[in-house]
Amino acid sequence: MPFLDPLSEVTDQVQKSGLAPDVIPAEPVFRPNILVAASWGSTSPASLGNAPTEASLGNTLAKATAQHAPALAFTPTEAFPDAAATYTLAMVDPDAPSRADPRWGQWRHWLVTGVKPLAPGAVKFATVDVPAVSPYIGPSPPEGSGAHRYAILLFKEPSTGFTLPADAAERQDSMEGRAKWNAVRFAEKYGMRLAGVNFFYVEG
After folding, report:
1. How is residue 30 annotated by DSSP?
2. Contact assessment for residue 148 and residue 105, using Cβ atoms and an 8 Å cutoff
3. DSSP string, 161-202
4. What distance in Å separates the CA atoms of residue 39 and residue 125, rounded to the nearest whole number?
5. CA 166: distance to chain centroid?
6. DSSP characters for 91-124?
7. What does the alpha-carbon distance between residue 144 and residue 166 come to, in Å, rounded to a whole number?
8. What CATH number does domain 6-20+28-203 carry, 3.20.20.80, 3.40.50.1010, 3.90.280.10, 3.40.190.10?
9. CA nearest neighbour of 125 among 63, 72, 163
10. pLDDT tens digits, residue range 145-197?
11. Cβ distance 133 to 185 under 8 Å?
């Protein structure tokens, strides 16, 4: 089996999982320039003292594990953008209410703008310290609905200090408003570029 570097592994697993084309376009093939890591456990109020559990490009997490917003780490690469850049973070479920019948997907579980990465070279996890546009809601796949994919997407914003307009639909937070959302269309509307992806599964 040929060796895959970490960035190539992201591309490979996104394609194998069907996140391309279910969440991001299949063409052109997505090539990340940031590795996105998410960790639950050591920072979750419900899991203090437990060893952290990380999303790992398609591993399966227990529903209870991911009920609080994760700590995050963005690992720089040689192509890492300038230190002043800010990012929008989104987490979506394309399999709502099930992968066989995704009539509510993508369901928006989390949306935060103005996220700043740690300093280049840093690999420690950190909490998101800016208010969320859509506060985090943990996975809750319906019983019997099979495995759901939860995609964590990091978009580079068009300018430092970017904020969503006051009348943006995403600011009107409701259960109905979170359904049938499209992260990439949202990003294109505001001139953002996808920089990194990670994902995990939770069984219904």
Report:
1. P
2. no
3. T----TT-GGGS--HHHHTT--HHHHHHHTT-EEEEEEEEEE
4. 7
5. 23
6. EEETTSS-SSS-TTPSEEEEEEEEE-PPPTT--S
7. 39
8. 3.90.280.10
9. 72
10. 999 999 999 999 998 888 899 999 999 888 899 999 999 999 999 999 999 99
11. no
